[in-house]
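Justification of computing resources. Each target in the renewal requires a structure prediction run like the one illustrated here; the chain below, 434 residues long, is used simply to show the kind of job we budget for.
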Amino acid sequence: MSRISLFPITTEVNDKNHLVLGGCDSVALVGEFGTPLYVFDEPTLRGKCARYREEFGQRYANTLIIYACKAFINRALALIFMEEGLGLDVVSGGELAIAKSVGFPLERVYFHGNNKSPQELEQAVKWGVGRIVVDNFFELSLLEEVAKEAGARPDILLRLSPGVDPHTHAHITTGVVDTKFGFPMAQAEEAVARAMASSFFELKGLHFHIGSQIFELEPYREAIGIVFRFAAEMSTKYGFSLQEFSPGGGLAITYTDDSPAPTIGQFADVITSTLLHRSHEVGVEPPRLVVEPGRSIVGQAGVALYSVGAIKDIPGVRRYISVDGGIADNIRPALYGARYEAVAANKVEVDDLEQVTIAGKFCESGDILIKDIDLPKLVPGDVIAIPCCGAYCLSLASNYNASLKPAIVLVNDGKARLITRRQSDEDLMSHDNV
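Resulting structure tokens:
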């Protein structure tokens, strides 16, 4: 596999042997914007949106694709998703505020979360979000109070936990019995009965989300079967109508050459064929389908650029290449054991390679971005480019060691636009009182 195959679709190597993203020389981007720098490729981002619309639309026309903002969102990306006809899956008042700030159609916004505050629910009801995805009995009661006070009747989905293991990392498994998310199936009937008995909201359907970075598609089939059998039972007992169904998202992406992920088409085929089969099997009218991809839309579009600093040799053990970012802008390797590929952006195609470990600059021994990777001989000032950094890097970023969060640029057709400026020292201290 080519060393640049995991990078955005516009990626090239120019005659200077530099990595080119969206028509922009990455070394020139570093010269203009500094490092660490996150670069998002607009054609890749829009292409993933289009692929989701096409793959699901041709198999099941009654589908809405909503982007899971937790992977990463800012105002510029929210505008792109609006232009591409997607909805948004938000999990906080902050994500909802970003959507509203750009005029995103709030009827295409779904509000998730296992502990929404009264203020967040009030905001969601007042602003008229499309669906509130209710996670537990406490939220059912709280939402009744909020809706009664507002004189509104919001549409809701119930999030179920179908008890299916997607065989991903334990930290990103969300559909098993022992999870903080959703109603376990043993409590799901009571949740439906209470929701249908309430006059303060309208139960539209059911939702589940079994996890993230999922390579195996069979767990989706299993979970869909469980939920559709349950829906049929609720129809018989309570007259429940499954108007809308969401299997969440969670599709993996390929981070390293040795771990290829399923395609969007394969994912769409499993979801839609199983939905149609189970609908027919249990006698339920096929509902509207809502799919919630995050990582698989934004992951490949993002590239992290770092400058090389200190180099440490431990003879017979390891060569450490330290860069000016790390755990504060990408905690995934430390948190999940996530693995990445990388290239030297200022000398991409070089045959003479050596094994090194890319270390971050922060005061944690676990601040290692990539362990044991073959790269050209590096010197201070070289630029390291890590692909597939569009998801869960910036959204999990921190100011650890009082570091400054990086700048973000959007590239397309040889032009780079700053969409989030680098934090300043003043930003870092702006909320302090002395």
